[in-house]
């Protein structure tokens, strides 16, 4: 846990309390701060006698060799990048738990059949380059390398001090910090026996039920869109409502409608980015672009929400500007599609047994109720590793279920529990 | 009219047609393009034997002397700055008509009692520095000089290529282009006998009734606000709607409500600028700022809309986040307040008689119906001059009533009519 906060010296974010670790994080993928923590990670892993490699997406793989060199290592992975106003646990915990596992294995002199690796995946958040989990996606050969390399950074985020002033692509950003490795980014070049990931829940279920460990069995589906609403610039003071094609007014109605429709189908719909042009107090905006993030337990539900919103947004656009015969139009672009995922039974079993064992060690009466199976609301690199190798995840509680917020917090106890569970899960898997 | 397009070479904006003049304008106040057109304006007026002075707000006064030097000149004024996606007529027409008037007087060897002046007022649009008519406001001693000098440019507009990358203040921008004059900006230092202004209507009344001239008797009231909605950043994928304090969702509801309330009271309410932070696809925005422009024929109506919206916005904010006991909050800042204005009877009479005469010259049967009295929906520098000296305005029709849009257009005929009416109005006023 002290290492966790140590690693947070690079990219400390918004301060929310007086304590030395009472700040959030702002460590956008491939920023200078990300470079610093990567350098530290590599140095640390080398000191722990791991072999370190970096691939074309900047993914860093550090492997502690096992008895056999002819079988792939079992990996513990997560990410060191954060949201622009992120916290100290999302992703970071997963990599730091991996380091702890390797340290502990070294301390105990534990030998494994295959190697045990720790991986830092690049740009998991999708906050700087707008595809989440993009680098595990390339590794899984689900996202083409060129598409990922050409991704442009999000302008709203680019305006933050940590980012460059002219928009970078992922490739130029990788080059800039010296992390464009030469190993092909693929599960074929860097094979894994399995992938385990420990993460804060980022939701309220564990913490509100006072439970310690979530055995993650599935991840909900999500789709990310960029939408453009095209209306007509005009004067705010001289243009009657019925003569407007106000793209921002259309947007406002769309956002209200999106929540209505998503809620009616047990899904979520959220807008994180909005940009209205030309951006003048007394000009009705003629152009608005915004992001739309739709999620739901089943892929089909997300598709249904999308379908209904496509119809509804068209109707909203058509009504705004109808009076002048020049209604608004709306265009959709799909940036990212992540269908619902079910994790691998073998990995889930290893986690389940390890969680029971760790919680039992804590000698609390009713251990069973301290562990629950859970679905992840957020995406994780484990989503993409699961396409190629057996995968599952471990959740620990976080305060108020809050994440993507500077005050994101998990107790040191819970972090240690998470690390202990993943250590046991890896060992169990290795012995299978 | 050829001069008008000549002056548009500095700051040409979005192209909408094939013709050489088929572009809009993007000449933000105090940009390099604004400097170029100012330099041209001064050179032109000096060549026409006018005396030119520049005050502390960069207002440029060019006076053609009259017989008497002990009485103030009668001024024709408007502005050369534009919206970021503006057209070739808004403001520009008024200054160029002034130049035409001086040229014609020189050509005819016309002597006037007092002098006749042309003034280019700085930052009328309020697009770059968010108070419209700010420099005539300082001249009228309605806005303190220091307040105007310290105004910061709007970030959304500042990101345009014409503006600097770090936000400028009005004072620094004036200095940068060499237009921080040393004459005090005040009606006491630069007195006027009267102020006349010709402008495109920017609305649909003249053009749709096929009328040629609007005798402007009044200007509607408006208020500009900046609002902040403070909610809570959180994860879009793991946070149920009832656990959110989504500042952007609150904004969307507010914008929808603003139109409802304004419409019910015969007013307008518009949002031109919106900024959501942190601006990440998968973070629910915890902070949104936006502009709100409320207008109505009477000052009291605008106040009523404001009052109702303050209540409604509080209610919207209180509901979003109530589930977590941390509802959104909304804060209002008044940037600018322009009460309704009635112009001066003497000036209105001069314009009325001149308009009738010009239209009669055009030898069309029913001249009366070609001229109408009209209220201005937009603010103009004449609003502030009217606080200190007799003032009125002349409107000419514009295509589709469209303004603050690149395709803004008035026919050359209508522009000439406007210039002829203002010439006569000035002469009539001088003879009173
Ligand atoms: N865990 C996490 O926040 N991942 C980012 C991708 C997502 O938005 O779900
Ligand atoms: N005429 C004009 O567009 N003036 C700008 C001030 C306003 O918004 O009314």
What's this model, at a glance?
Chain A is of the alpha+beta class.
SSE diagram, text form:
The structure is a homodimer of 432-residue chains.
Chain A (H helix, E strand, L loop, with lengths): L1 H6 L4 E4 L7 E3 L6 H16 L3 E4 L5 E5 L9 E5 L13 H17 L7 E5 L13 H6 L5 H6 L4 H4 L11 H7 L17 E7 L4 H4 L4 E7 L1 E10 L3 E2 L11 H18 L3 E3 L3 E4 L5 E2 L2 E10 L2 H21 L9 E10 L2 E2 L2 H17 L9 E6 L4 H5 L5 E6 L15 H20 L1
Parallel strand pairs in A: 5-6, 5-7, 7-18, 8-17
Antiparallel strand pairs in A: 1-2, 3-4, 4-6, 8-16, 8-18, 9-14, 9-15, 10-13, 11-14, 12-14
Helix pairs in contact in A: 3-13, 9-10, 11-13
Q: Point out poorly predicted stretches of chain A.
A: 158-164
Hetero compounds: N-(aminocarbonyl)-beta-alanine
Indicate the radius of gyration of chain A in whole angstroms. Answer: 23 Å
In percent terms, what proportion of residues of chain A is strand?
15-25%
| Count of runs of 4 or more consecutive helical residues of chain A | 13
Largest interface: A-B, 75 and 75 residues
Assembly state here?
homodimer
- The computed structural class of chain A is alpha+beta
Shape of chain A: globular
First-residue to last-residue Cα separation of chain A: 30 Å
Helix content of chain A: 25-40%
Family (chains A, B): Belongs to the peptidase M20A family.
Pfam family, one (chains A, B): Peptidase_M20
InterPro entries (chains A, B): Amidase_Cbmase, Bact_exopeptidase_dim_dom, Peptidase_M20, Peptidase_M20_dimer
Protein name (chains A, B): Peptidase M20 dimerisation domain-containing protein
